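All the exercises in this workshop are built on plain-text protein records. Instead of coordinates, the fold is spelled out as a row of discrete tokens. Once this layout is familiar, the rest of the handout is easier to follow. The record below serves as our worked example for the rest of this section.
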Amino acid sequence: MAQKTSRSWLWLLVIPWIAMVWVPSYNRIDPQLWGFPFFYWYQLLWVLVSAVITGFVYFKTRGQS
């Protein structure tokens, strides 16, 4: 049962994937942040968010395999 619970944390890794694959949702210029078009800063933001999510999932699932 504990292993199944720890594996459910892996579903969090799908969130960044969906955010990056769904290009029409961020394929635009506005709003700009510090002069950067939305298209670029949105992707850069997801690099950071993905790292946090990946680290969180790692700590939740380590030692379970």
